[in-house]
Amino acid sequence: MNTMGAICEKSDCQLFISIILQKLIKQCPLKYKLVRGLSALQPSTICASITIAEECFNICFKMLYEVNHISSTVADNARDQFTTLLNIGSFKEAAASFDELSDRFDDFWFTWAMKNNFNDLTFVIKMLLILSHGNATVESSFSINENLLNWATRSAQLQEKRANIIDSSSIHVPAQLKYSSRRVAKLGKELACAEWLLSCAANISGPQPYTTAFIEAH
Protein backbone atom coordinates (compact mmCIF):
# COMPACT_ATOMS: atom_id res chain seq x y z
CA MET A 1 0.00 0.00 0.00
CA ASN A 2 1.43 3.37 -1.00
CA THR A 3 1.67 6.35 1.32
CA MET A 4 -1.40 8.07 -0.11
CA GLY A 5 -3.48 4.92 0.35
CA ALA A 6 -2.33 4.58 3.95
CA ILE A 7 -3.25 8.19 4.66
CA CYS A 8 -6.71 7.74 3.13
CA GLU A 9 -7.30 4.56 5.11
CA LYS A 10 -6.27 6.28 8.33
CA SER A 11 -8.59 9.19 7.57
CA ASP A 12 -11.48 6.82 6.89
CA CYS A 13 -10.86 5.01 10.17
CA GLN A 14 -10.83 8.28 12.08
CA LEU A 15 -14.07 9.36 10.42
CA PHE A 16 -15.67 6.00 11.21
CA ILE A 17 -14.65 6.15 14.88
CA SER A 18 -15.82 9.76 15.12
CA ILE A 19 -19.27 8.89 13.72
CA ILE A 20 -19.61 5.87 16.03
CA LEU A 21 -18.71 7.96 19.08
CA GLN A 22 -21.21 10.64 18.08
CA LYS A 23 -23.93 8.00 17.79
CA LEU A 24 -23.03 6.55 21.19
CA ILE A 25 -23.02 9.95 22.86
CA LYS A 26 -26.37 10.78 21.25
CA GLN A 27 -27.94 7.61 22.67
CA CYS A 28 -26.11 7.74 26.00
CA PRO A 29 -28.46 8.38 28.96
CA LEU A 30 -25.77 10.49 30.65
CA LYS A 31 -26.62 13.43 28.42
CA TYR A 32 -29.79 13.90 30.48
CA LYS A 33 -29.52 15.98 33.65
CA LEU A 34 -31.78 13.67 35.64
CA VAL A 35 -29.60 10.64 34.92
CA ARG A 36 -26.50 12.56 35.99
CA GLY A 37 -28.34 13.58 39.14
CA LEU A 38 -29.12 9.96 39.96
CA SER A 39 -25.39 9.37 40.47
CA ALA A 40 -25.93 10.93 43.91
CA LEU A 41 -27.42 7.62 45.03
CA GLN A 42 -24.31 5.70 44.04
CA PRO A 43 -22.41 4.73 47.22
CA SER A 44 -19.09 5.25 45.44
CA THR A 45 -20.08 8.87 44.66
CA ILE A 46 -20.89 9.46 48.33
CA CYS A 47 -17.56 8.00 49.41
CA ALA A 48 -15.70 10.15 46.88
CA SER A 49 -17.39 13.45 47.78
CA ILE A 50 -20.43 14.22 49.90
CA THR A 51 -20.57 17.69 48.34
CA ILE A 52 -20.85 16.28 44.83
CA ALA A 53 -23.51 13.81 45.99
CA GLU A 54 -25.56 16.65 47.48
CA GLU A 55 -25.22 18.77 44.34
CA CYS A 56 -26.32 15.87 42.13
CA PHE A 57 -29.28 15.07 44.36
CA ASN A 58 -30.35 18.73 44.29
CA ILE A 59 -30.74 18.32 40.52
CA CYS A 60 -33.22 15.50 41.12
CA PHE A 61 -35.16 17.51 43.69
CA LYS A 62 -35.37 20.49 41.39
CA MET A 63 -36.55 18.51 38.38
CA LEU A 64 -39.14 16.51 40.30
CA TYR A 65 -40.50 19.72 41.83
CA GLU A 66 -40.65 21.53 38.47
CA VAL A 67 -42.87 18.81 36.99
CA ASN A 68 -45.07 18.72 40.13
CA HIS A 69 -44.03 15.22 41.14
CA ILE A 70 -43.23 16.45 44.66
CA SER A 71 -44.20 19.49 46.69
CA SER A 72 -41.76 22.10 47.95
CA THR A 73 -42.23 20.78 51.49
CA VAL A 74 -41.33 17.24 50.50
CA ALA A 75 -38.34 18.50 48.50
CA ASP A 76 -36.99 20.55 51.43
CA ASN A 77 -37.54 17.78 53.96
CA ALA A 78 -35.98 15.10 51.73
CA ARG A 79 -32.97 17.33 51.05
CA ASP A 80 -32.39 17.89 54.77
CA GLN A 81 -32.83 14.19 55.48
CA PHE A 82 -30.39 13.27 52.72
CA THR A 83 -27.76 15.63 54.14
CA THR A 84 -28.31 14.26 57.64
CA LEU A 85 -27.99 10.68 56.40
CA LEU A 86 -24.74 11.39 54.54
CA ASN A 87 -23.16 12.68 57.74
CA ILE A 88 -23.96 9.60 59.81
CA GLY A 89 -20.71 7.75 60.45
CA SER A 90 -22.16 4.25 60.23
CA PHE A 91 -23.87 5.13 56.95
CA LYS A 92 -20.54 6.21 55.45
CA GLU A 93 -19.02 2.89 56.51
CA ALA A 94 -21.92 1.00 54.95
CA ALA A 95 -21.55 2.98 51.71
CA ALA A 96 -17.82 2.21 51.62
CA SER A 97 -18.46 -1.52 52.07
CA PHE A 98 -21.31 -1.65 49.53
CA ASP A 99 -20.65 -4.38 46.94
CA GLU A 100 -22.23 -3.54 43.58
CA LEU A 101 -22.02 -7.18 42.48
CA SER A 102 -23.83 -8.77 45.40
CA ASP A 103 -25.69 -6.08 47.39
CA ARG A 104 -29.14 -4.84 46.39
CA PHE A 105 -29.21 -1.12 45.68
CA ASP A 106 -32.84 -0.59 46.73
CA ASP A 107 -32.44 -2.57 49.96
CA PHE A 108 -29.41 -0.46 50.89
CA TRP A 109 -31.26 2.85 50.59
CA PHE A 110 -34.62 1.81 51.97
CA THR A 111 -33.00 0.16 54.99
CA TRP A 112 -31.11 3.30 55.94
CA ALA A 113 -33.84 5.78 55.07
CA MET A 114 -36.61 3.91 56.89
CA LYS A 115 -34.38 3.03 59.85
CA ASN A 116 -34.03 6.75 60.51
CA ASN A 117 -37.70 7.48 59.74
CA PHE A 118 -36.80 9.61 56.72
CA ASN A 119 -40.20 9.20 55.11
CA ASP A 120 -39.88 12.03 52.58
CA LEU A 121 -36.44 10.83 51.50
CA THR A 122 -37.78 7.28 51.13
CA PHE A 123 -40.62 8.60 48.97
CA VAL A 124 -38.26 10.53 46.68
CA ILE A 125 -35.74 7.70 46.34
CA LYS A 126 -38.51 5.23 45.51
CA MET A 127 -39.79 7.59 42.82
CA LEU A 128 -36.33 8.01 41.31
CA LEU A 129 -35.66 4.28 41.24
CA ILE A 130 -39.02 3.66 39.56
CA LEU A 131 -38.15 6.25 36.90
CA SER A 132 -35.03 4.31 35.99
CA HIS A 133 -36.90 0.99 36.02
CA GLY A 134 -40.40 1.95 34.97
CA ASN A 135 -41.58 -1.45 33.74
CA ALA A 136 -40.46 -3.50 36.72
CA THR A 137 -43.79 -5.29 37.02
CA VAL A 138 -43.45 -6.73 33.53
CA GLU A 139 -39.73 -7.38 33.75
CA SER A 140 -40.04 -9.24 37.04
CA SER A 141 -41.55 -12.18 35.18
CA PHE A 142 -38.46 -12.29 32.99
CA SER A 143 -36.28 -12.42 36.09
CA ILE A 144 -38.32 -15.37 37.36
CA ASN A 145 -37.89 -17.09 34.01
CA GLU A 146 -34.17 -16.50 34.20
CA ASN A 147 -34.04 -18.16 37.62
CA LEU A 148 -36.01 -21.11 36.29
CA LEU A 149 -33.69 -21.36 33.32
CA ASN A 150 -30.59 -21.79 35.50
CA TRP A 151 -31.07 -25.55 35.60
CA ALA A 152 -32.44 -25.81 32.08
CA THR A 153 -29.58 -24.07 30.32
CA ARG A 154 -27.02 -26.70 31.19
CA SER A 155 -26.10 -28.24 27.87
CA ALA A 156 -25.95 -31.80 29.17
CA GLN A 157 -29.50 -31.66 30.54
CA LEU A 158 -30.81 -30.03 27.36
CA GLN A 159 -29.20 -32.68 25.21
CA GLU A 160 -30.68 -35.40 27.39
CA LYS A 161 -34.17 -33.90 27.25
CA ARG A 162 -34.00 -33.47 23.47
CA ALA A 163 -32.81 -37.04 23.10
CA ASN A 164 -35.74 -38.32 25.15
CA ILE A 165 -38.19 -36.45 22.93
CA ILE A 166 -36.64 -37.17 19.55
CA ASP A 167 -35.77 -40.82 20.30
CA SER A 168 -39.21 -42.04 21.40
CA SER A 169 -38.03 -45.67 21.26
CA SER A 170 -35.90 -45.11 24.38
CA ILE A 171 -38.89 -44.38 26.61
CA HIS A 172 -42.18 -46.14 27.25
CA VAL A 173 -45.08 -44.24 25.72
CA PRO A 174 -48.67 -45.52 25.90
CA ALA A 175 -50.03 -46.49 22.49
CA GLN A 176 -52.66 -43.74 22.53
CA LEU A 177 -49.96 -41.12 23.11
CA LYS A 178 -47.45 -42.23 20.50
CA TYR A 179 -46.66 -39.73 17.77
CA SER A 180 -45.34 -40.21 14.27
CA SER A 181 -41.64 -39.55 13.64
CA ARG A 182 -42.58 -36.31 11.88
CA ARG A 183 -44.59 -35.17 14.90
CA VAL A 184 -41.75 -36.08 17.27
CA ALA A 185 -39.28 -34.09 15.17
CA LYS A 186 -41.67 -31.12 15.19
CA LEU A 187 -41.98 -31.32 18.97
CA GLY A 188 -38.21 -31.26 19.28
CA LYS A 189 -38.02 -28.13 17.15
CA GLU A 190 -40.82 -26.48 19.14
CA LEU A 191 -39.01 -27.23 22.39
CA ALA A 192 -35.77 -25.73 21.07
CA CYS A 193 -37.70 -22.66 19.87
CA ALA A 194 -39.39 -22.26 23.26
CA GLU A 195 -36.04 -22.50 25.05
CA TRP A 196 -34.61 -19.83 22.75
CA LEU A 197 -37.58 -17.51 23.33
CA LEU A 198 -37.31 -17.93 27.09
CA SER A 199 -33.59 -17.14 27.01
CA CYS A 200 -34.32 -14.02 24.94
CA ALA A 201 -37.07 -12.95 27.31
CA ALA A 202 -34.79 -13.42 30.29
CA ASN A 203 -32.30 -10.97 28.81
CA ILE A 204 -34.66 -8.31 27.46
CA SER A 205 -33.62 -4.78 28.44
CA GLY A 206 -34.07 -1.30 27.08
CA PRO A 207 -35.43 2.16 27.81
CA GLN A 208 -38.95 2.21 29.17
CA PRO A 209 -41.47 4.57 27.49
CA TYR A 210 -42.40 6.47 30.64
CA THR A 211 -38.83 6.91 31.74
CA THR A 212 -37.59 7.98 28.31
CA ALA A 213 -40.42 10.46 27.80
CA PHE A 214 -39.87 12.01 31.21
CA ILE A 215 -36.10 12.31 30.79
CA GLU A 216 -36.23 13.61 27.22
CA ALA A 217 -38.54 16.37 28.39
CA HIS A 218 -35.66 17.67 30.48
In short:
This protein has 218 residues and is mainly α.
List the helices and strands and how they pair.
Elements lengths: L2 H25 L5 H5 L5 H6 L1 H17 L5 H15 L2 H8 L8 H11 L3 H13 L4 H17 L2 H12 L14 H22 L6 H8 L2
Structural notes for this entry:
The structure is a single chain. This protein is an all-alpha fold and 218 residues long. The protein folds into two domains: 30-131, no CATH class; 136-206, no CATH class. The protein is built from twelve helices and no strands. The chain has helices at 3-27, 33-37, 43-48, 50-66, 72-86, 89-96, 105-115, 119-131, 136-152, 155-166, 181-202, 209-216. It is elongated and about 70 Å long. It comes from Romanomermis culicivorax (Nematode worm). This is HAT C-terminal dimerisation domain-containing protein.
Which overall shape is indicated by the principal axes computed on the Cα atoms?
A: elongated
Annotation, overall tally of beta strands:
0
Overall helicity: over 70%
Structural class call reads: mainly alpha
The description of the largest β-sheet is:
none
Number of domains: 2
Q: Total helix count?
A: 12
Helix and strand element order: HHHHHHHHHHHH
pLDDT < 50 runs, ≥5 residues: 141-148, 165-179, 204-218
The overall pLDDT average reads 71
Protein name: HAT C-terminal dimerisation domain-containing protein
Organism: Romanomermis culicivorax
What labels would you give this structure?
elongated; 2 domains; mainly alpha; 218 residues; 0% strand
